[in-house]
UniProtKB/TrEMBL annotation:
Classification of source organism: Bacteria, Pseudomonadati, Planctomycetota, Planctomycetia, Kolteriales
An annotated Gene Ontology molecular function: hydrolase activity
Organism: Kolteria novifilia
Superkingdom in the source lineage: Bacteria
Pfam families, sorted: 3keto-disac_hyd
Residue span(s) of domain 3-keto-alpha-glucoside-1,2-lyase/3-keto-2-hydroxy-glucal hydratase: 139-328
Protein name: 3-keto-alpha-glucoside-1,2-lyase/3-keto-2-hydroxy-glucal hydratase domain-containing protein
Length: 332
């Protein structure tokens, strides 16, 4: 089965008994073509879009190893006591009928296309970054200890207190309080950041769990609920107007994610840049940028003093994004 555009209806009873996050997430499995038994691998990333609507992206790897990608969308309804799926999709521009059931983390069913028929079986994956909870090594600068914001100030101020709050060991954006910046200026090194975007199914685009991490307060790696979206420079992991992530490695909102970043600031001599900065970013353990050159600040930077050290800045973009376990190991 090649790439499909899935639209359908999931009937749940009672709807309130199945929370949205039991549908939202990453589903993985196979399709099997009737007759010849050919199997394709499938990964579907499904995001809640408010009310009874869901959408995302499906990746299908066919028997030849070719990968196909298409958006998916469906709606949820209650019909008696059944949890059933009926809908339509597209394959090579042709309509495909899809039917199945969702129960206890399994999504199984069948597809019926003009050129082939078959079955599919998917299971919902539990996602966890391989570096989540990684402890700061000896010699690292701990930027947030899970207890106080003493190491932080309001961004672009001399020493005004940070306006965010600490919730369950995480620092949380207080919308409209302003971005925060580490009091200690930082330079080259390895940065570890853990973040969690809020569940905002009714919101869209840049209004959906928006924040950002600015290295030295000048070079942003975007934080956003981009689960189920194609990679873009203004989606999660993007370096705005500089570099599009190699892949979108996002997890669903409400799940802790990680950025592990190797950062080198631009080098200056006599006020002139003699070497660009460089940044390598791993998002949830996946390399999404590798040695990307930094020759200018990104939008929303705290300043443009590129020849000076600067504190890392976390952006207030109006959404209650959370951060924890922030530390930096200076380059030796």
């Amino acid at each position: 089965m090649n790439a499909i555009l899935l639209t359908g209806v999931i009937a749940l009873a009672p709807l309130a008994a199945l929370e949205s996050d039991e549908i939202q997430g990453q589903w993985k499995g196979t399709t099997t073509v009737a007759g010849n038994g050919h199997q394709s691998k499938v990964v579907a990333k499904i995001a809640a879009l408010g009310g009874n609507k869901y959408g995302g992206i499906v990746h299908v790897t066919d028997p030849k190893g070719d990968v196909h990608e298409a958006p998916i969308s469906f709606e949820v309804e209650t019909k008696g006591s059944a949890v059933t799926v009926t809908g339509s999709s597209e394959m090579k521009g042709e309509p495909v009928k899809v039917s199945g059931t969702i129960s206890e983390g399994s999504f199984t069913g069948s597809f019926d296309a003009p050129e082939e028929k078959g079955t599919f079986a998917l299971t919902r994956e539990k996602l966890k970054s391989p570096t989540a909870g990684k402890k700061a090594p000896e010699g690292a600068i701990v930027l947030f200890d899970g207890k106080s914001l003493n190491a932080w100030k309001k961004a672009r101020s001399k020493n005004a207190p940070a306006g965010w709050k600490v919730v369950d060991g995480a620092m949380q954006v207080v919308p409209k309080s302003g971005s925060v910046q580490s009091k200690q200026p930082l330079g080259d090194g390895h940065y570890h950041i853990e973040f969690k975007t809020p569940f905002m199914p009714e919101s869209r685009g840049q209004a959906r769990g928006n924040s950002g991490v600015y290295f030295q307060g000048r070079y942003e790696v975007q934080v956003l609920d981009s689960f189920g979206q194609p990679p873009r420079d203004n989606e999660a992991g993007g370096i705005y107007k500089v570099s599009v992530p190699k892949v979108n490695a996002s997890y669903p909102p409400g799940e802790w994610q990680t950025y592990d970043v190797d950062f080198e600031a631009p080098k200056f001599e006599g006020g002139k840049m003699v070497a660009p900065g460089k940044i390598t970013v791993r998002h949830n353990g996946v390399v999404i940028h590798e040695d990307v050159e930094l020759t200018k600040t990104t939008n929303g930077a705290a300043d443009n003093k590129m020849d000076q050290p600067g504190g890392v800045m976390l952006q207030d973009h109006g959404n209650p994004v959370e951060y924890r376990n922030l530390w930096m190991m200076p380059k030796k």
